[in-house]
Prior knowledge:
Blueprint: E1 8-14, H1 21-34, E2 39-45, H2 50-53, H3 60-74, E3 82-85, H4 90-100, H5 105-109, H6 112-120, H7 128-131, H8 133-142, E4 148-151, H9 156-173, E5 181-184, H10 212-216
Parallel strand pairs: 1-2, 2-3, 4-5
Helix pairs in contact: 4-8, 8-9
Amino acid sequence: MSEPKRKVIFSAMQVTGRLHLGNLEGALRNWVRLQDEYELYAGIVDLHSLTTGFEDTSELRDNIREAAIDYLAAGLDSEKMAIVVQSWVPAHAELHVLLSMITPVGWLERVPTYKEKREQLHIASPSYGLLGYPVLMAADILVYRAEVVPVGQDQVPHLELTREIARRFNHLYGETFPEPEALLTEFAVLPGLDGRKMSKSYGNCIHLSDSAEMVRE
Length: 217
């Protein structure tokens, strides 16, 4: 008898900088376990990195390479799952454009992390890329027809928006995409050095590639 088809799962991380302990505890360890239970696609979402870091892209290529190394070093097995570099798969951007046509601006403005990033990073004039971040995230998930998405609590509103977008697309054009379910991660938020969520954008990280001496400091 053939094995039952495994559910598709998609999860990803930005590469605005080197990966850190929050990435390891909040995502990577979980992915290593999930690769044996699901058809796993682990994304390196470099386009997302441009939403707040478009002025200087000089380190982006190196960050992509370092992220892939960290993924494998953490225990992801390319024989069991797929590592996806977002910009290398044109379907991500193509689906994002199509989904943006049916997504009301009001849906995007109510996403809590949009306001949070504007305030935390002191962005006076936000770009569409920042506002439309959840639409690109929806495209990342739906292009693989993912049925499950591991997320932290802070990402639940984004995933709910993905479900709404999928629901609207299906209503307009027929059943095309599943409405992905959230799989909450065990460690929703790991504090950074300043007490806020550990984030590459906030510069408050302990990086996976830091020396033992630096980590102790």
